[in-house]
Amino acid sequence: DAAVRMTGITISFPGVKALDGVDLVLRRGEVHALMGENGAGKSTLIKALTGVYRVDSGGIQVDGRELRFDDPSQAQAAGISTVYQEVNLCTNLTVAENVMLGHEVRRGPFVDWRATRREARRYLQRLHLDIDPRSPLAAHSIAVQQLCAIARALVVDARVLILDEPTSSLDKAEVAELFRVVRTLRDAGVAILFVSHFLEQVYALSDRMTVLRNGRFVGEFRTADLSRRDLISHMVGRSGEALAG
Ligand code: ADP
Ligand code: MG
Ligand code: MG
């Protein structure tokens, strides 16, 4: 039931092997955390999946089909949406325009703006987000802007949603709201990849995790089966106890 299966992914930059034979499986209806210390290769793996980087070797299957992404638009067309730490929306447009940008990419330019606003409102309502579609995006907090970016994933009917440290600038209530929306998408069958430095958030949200260390695959674990101490020792490659002590 894998939405994405990456196998043996290897990517080198001059002087550094960023990824060396890494596997990643993202399943429908699950939140999958990608864990590893700074420099472990998390962002590089995400960029391979989103078509930003080409792989030197290894395979990427989406819905069981072997794909090769030469640029990000191809990954997007395959149903892979990404929300970055920095908001990747147009703050000079309205909420509706931003949410429906995904629609435009997929189904061509809008003609009827009133219908577009209505449709944006429907998508926001599906996520129980009480945001006025006519308001300028710039009038809202970063948290609301992130939620609009996630709503856009729904508009493009994303099979895979990648959240790369989406909570870095959010307060506690905003994180709770973001998690609620992520769980709604998860329960709708979206495969979600979650990258966060906050162990508490990873344990609260993820069903499984993949751990990387120095560009290598350490293992895949069910979150409920992995103690924080063991996770840390997998990440750093020595006893988590020693690290804590
Ligand atoms: P993480 O996201 O886990 O912190 P990265 O994927 O950013 O790790 O980096 C993995 C390794 O690849 C690091 O050694 C990093 O310096 C290197 N790296 C990442 N991107 C580039 C790049 N564009 N050019 C050269 N080296 C890179
Ligand atoms: Mg980093
Ligand atoms: Mg990174």
From TrEMBL:
Subcellular location: Cell membrane
Domain ABC transporter: 4-239
Protein name: Sugar ABC transporter ATP-binding protein
